Structure of ECF transporter S component:
Amino acid sequence: MGIVENQILKENTVRTSAKDLVVTGLLIAMVFIGTMFINIRLPISINGGLVHLGNVILFTVSFTFGKKKGAMAGAFGMGLFDILSGWTAWAPFTFIIRGIMGYLLGSISNYRGKNGESILINILAIIISGIWMIGGYYLTEVILYGNWITPVTSVPGNITQLVIGLFALLLTPAIKKIKNIL
């Protein structure tokens, strides 16, 4: 390669990295906003469980942009929510649980070139990542509350979050069209 080709490659890499950073930041912000401002506290859980639209956005991001951006959006978007909304003790757990959840969603939905376009595979991704989320938050509550019974009250709320997250199946095709314009 000549000097000119190297310079063009370097400029394209910097532009791609900057664009990637901006897109990832926007996806994190969208998950945070969906979690922070569009939520309902549940009266059924001892810890005041929460149902929010951050899941719809996380699922859509993971189906559309894949496992890396899904992991980043879930970990940072929902972890930031915990820090800024008084759930600070939950933040490290949420960071790990939601990061892995986004990674699972993106990995499964984009497996073998499916590109998040198969409704059945996307539902499978929600089920598998949902099992991870429910188990992760159950163990988190065991650690935070020191018993094995109390966390059971959070399971219905977590299942409700997954059911609401199914709306991502309707949102994903539209977001994919927008992504293709970028």
User: Anything to note?
Assistant: The chain has seven helices and two strands.
